[in-house]
Automatic annotation (TrEMBL):
Synthesizes nicotianamine, a polyamine which serves as a sensor for the physiological iron status within the plant, and/or might be involved in the transport of iron. Belongs to the nicotianamine synthase (NAS)-like family. GO terms for molecular function: nicotianamine synthase activity. SUPFAM superfamilies: S-adenosyl-L-methionine-dependent methyltransferases (SSF53335). It catalyses: 3 S-adenosyl-L-methionine = nicotianamine + 3 S-methyl-5'-thioadenosine + 3 H(+). InterPro entries: Nicotian_synth, SAM-dependent_MTases_sf. This is Nicotianamine synthase. It is an enzyme of class 2 (transferase). Its EC number is 2.5.1.43.
Length: 305
């Protein structure tokens, strides 16, 4: 059953008040309970367009996304610390409560990547915003891109230290996965070396920062390279920032996929256009391309079933 817009906004607002009044967002019974309620409320497919809500709701949504991002970061550090205490952390990833979601999301992204990649397997991939628990990179490296080198970028040095500890005991991953502490806005020439760049959902927690990061990638990625990024759709836009076609200046949008199961993030794949020009407005061609490629989600859903 599709929940009414007013009901969702009211319930999300109530949860926002409770979450924002918490003394800490570190994993705890109260934190886990409130965020679980929020996720269960926002996950079912819903036609609500959260970007069109009144200004007061937009301000609440913006603050809630930041709280979700902060809580997610603290949860990842919590579990990365626990995993890092094992001799072989890779054997214990199932203790992370959302591990199955990452397995599904990495498979989804790999299938989408395969549809648009050339026959050659990507030799170098960058993951921007990898965090202390870089599950997407690890899942892709272990199960799908077995010969690819992964450069993981994060602004948090502690997160990178924790992440590198997770793969240090694995003879294969430790040779193919590297962690760099850097603000991606300061990384330029290196971006030309990658066949594929992943942009994590929490890089750019508001519209302006997200667009700024995408513009930077458009100026510095190699022509023809692929950008994979995560967005949100419907009520899931209360949890994560939404990226639309107009935000992808300098890229050709190839496909958009909106999951309808417990995988929350939408997946967008785009190709860096020739030249370094970044158009200042969204062209009708981009809109048409995005609209046509929305049809592809049905094919992907069948493949994943």
């Amino acid at each position: 059953m599709v929940l009414q817009k007013d009901y969702i906004v009211e319930k999300v607002s109530e949860l926002y008040v409770k979450i924002s009044s918490l003394g800490s967002l570190e994993p705890s019974k109260d934190v886990d309970m409130l965020f679980t309620q929020l996720v269960l409320l926002c996950t079912p497919p819903n036609p609500i367009d959260v970007t069109q809500l009144p200004k007061s709701n937009q301000e609440m949504r913006s603050k809630l996304i930041r709280l979700c991002g902060e809580a997610e970061g603290l949860m990842e550090k919590h579990y990365a610390t626990i995993l890092g205490s094992f001799d072989n952390p890779l054997h214990h990833f199932d203790i992370f409560p959302y591990f199955t979601n990452y397995i599904k999301l990495s498979l989804l992204e790999y299938n989408i990547l395969n549809q648009h990649c050339s026959t050659q397997v990507p030799s170098r991939v960058a993951f921007i915003g990898s965090g202390p628990l870089p599950l997407t990179s690890i899942c892709l490296a272990m199960h799908h891109l077995n010969s690819t080198t992964f450069d993981n970028y994060d602004i948090d040095a502690e997160a990178n230290t924790m992440a590198s500890r997770l793969i240090a005991s694995d003879p294969d991953l430790s040779k193919r996965m590297f962690f760099h502490t850097a603000n991606i806005m300061n990384v330029t020439n290196e971006l030309k070396d990658y066949d594929v760049v992943f942009l994590a959902a929490l890089v750019g927690m508001n519209k302006e920062d997200k667009v700024q990061a995408i513009d930077h990638l458009a100026k510095n990625m190699a022509p023809g390279a692929l950008l994979m990024l995560r967005s949100a759709h419907g009520a899931r836009g209360f949890l994560y920032p939404i990226v639309d076609s107009c935000d992808l200046r300098g890229f050709e949008v190839l496909s958009v996929y909106h999951p309808t199961d417990e995988v929350i993030n939408s997946v967008v794949i785009a190709r860096k256009q020739q030249g370094n020009e970044v158009p200042s407005t969204c062209s009708s061609t981009e809109d048409e391309s995005l609209e046509m490629n929305m049809v592809e989600e049905f094919a992907y859903e069948q493949n994943l079933a």
